[in-house]
Amino acid sequence: MQSGYKLILGGGAALGAAAAGGTAQAQTMNVSVTIPRLTVAEYHRPYVAIWLEKEGAAPRTLSVWYDVDKAKGEGTKWLRDIRQWWRVSGRTMSFPADGVSGATRAPGEQKIAFTAGKGPLPRLGAGNYTLVVEAAREVGGRELVRLPFSWPPKAGAAVRAKGNSELGAVSVSFSK
Prior knowledge:
176 residues, mainly beta, 4-stranded antiparallel sheet, 9 strands
């Protein structure tokens, strides 16, 4: 039996219905980056870039930690020292970037979460991706860690890697 009725939702009701339908598909990417405590004569917090790569697609910057408080935007001057990120994505961005820019972080474990379709993380199509974390420190070194994963991930899935100098343990886990 066919119904001759149509349901038309307007305004907030339509948005709520769309959000309710997309909730089952939402995935949260939980990223943990450990910045090691280094014993050096002159310590500066590292600039860090976190981005997503997929073969055949433009890289997507998720977060950039730099000295956002420097006068006249001077902190952006050193972003090019995060070399790999700068080449693939950074040089085309304007700073501060809403939802992406943040202050440098102190040594220790730093956690940040991204939900697909919200903020800097777009809705992702099925496929193989790489989460890339790069750190560069004034009067220090540079380091890059890659974490490959498949999308959509299974809830509870995780990928871990460890840096050698400027980055400690880096991981990405997934939840609904």
